[in-house]
Specification:
Elements (H helix, E strand, L loop, with lengths): L1 H20 L5 E6 L2 E3 L10 E6 L13 H18 L4 H7 L4 H9 L4 H24 L3 H17 L11
Helix pairs in contact: 2-4, 2-5
């Protein structure tokens, strides 16, 4: 029974440690006897490569947070912690000098401090993206495509029948 329990603990430990290695950059793992390590075996012992950790797919990575959005998220999390401790919005604005619009936004949201922080940061980044797109001007290609579609629709539409009174 002890051997079964010990084997089960080894499996759990191996799975747990393997999960910790996933976020690391591409790394080769070697098996040296019953030991796993990140470098080849010493003392001319046979090294067997048991796996290579793959880096995360950059297409699915979260975009980098701008510094001001990160600071806004941190402030929102602090507001949320004080809210959870029982502090009112008015107290937060007067005692801690937090911006009224940020305090109101935090108090409107549901969820814990981490969810509120992520929501505030996400809204900030979306606003930055909208501002960047607005500064770049309208997408002329999309506008020209829309004009072409309207002209094609107008050309293919049947002409209304002439009124009898205009004869």
């Amino acid at each position: 029974m002890n051997a079964l329990l010990r084997d089960a603990l080894r499996v759990v430990a191996a799975v747990g440690l393997g999960g910790l290695a996933l976020p690391l950059a591409a790394q080769t793992m070697y098996r040296c006897g019953s030991v796993y390590q990140d470098r080849p075996c010493a003392n001319a012992q046979e090294s067997r490569i048991v796996g290579r950790a793959q880096p995360a797919d950059p297409a699915h990575a979260r975009p980098a947070l701008e510094a001001d959005c990160a600071a806004l998220g941190e402030a929102a999390q602090r507001i949320m912690w004080r809210r959870e401790a029982g502090m009112t919005a008015a107290e937060q604005q007067s005692v801690h000098r937090e911006p009224a619009n940020l305090v109101a936004d935090v108090y409107r949201r549901r969820g814990g401090s981490v969810q509120v922080r992520q929501g505030i940061e996400g809204d900030c980044m979306a606003e930055r993206q909208r501002a960047a797109q607005a500064a770049a001007g309208p997408d002329m290609g999309a506008l020209l495509d829309a004009v072409a579609r309207l002209r094609a629709a107008a050309a293919s539409a049947p002409m209304p029948a002439a009124k009898a009174s205009q004869r």
